[in-house]
Amino acid sequence: MARERKSYSTGSDLNMTPMIDVVFQLIIFFVVTLKMTKDENTDIELEDGKHGPIVKEMPPQTLIIEVARNGRISIHNAAMNERMLQEILIGRVNRFRNTSFPVLIRADYRTKHRDVKRVMDVCTSAGIWKLSFVAIQEHKAGGKK
Length: 145
What we know:
- The protein has 145 residues and is of the alpha/beta class.
- It is built from three helices and five strands.
- The chain has a five-stranded mixed β-sheet with strand order 3-2-1-4-5.
- It is elongated and about 85 Å long.
- The termini are far apart.
């Protein structure tokens, strides 16, 4: 005797797979954007740049190199030495097929010039010529510490 299969469905099956995929994509998006906002070294105090141009948006291929007060070089808050920085820069030059992608040097106002010069020398040795320095338009009341 064959048993008859009973169906408890109301006639419309709802496929949850696309909805779950969208939810996972949103979670990944928010995790990545949250990480991007925390990559900046908050210990770096920038120099005043009252007369410089105000940059509202940067091209997506912009590389920000940070130089802390103690001479620590970092990208996305990951410390590195000159050799590692050069490898990263050469990799970007090869990826973009040119050396004209913008590089921003974000140095603390108390950083010694020799530490900033080290970063500039590494950029030059990688063939990068488009360097800019980040400063702030106005300091908060009370000035620098």
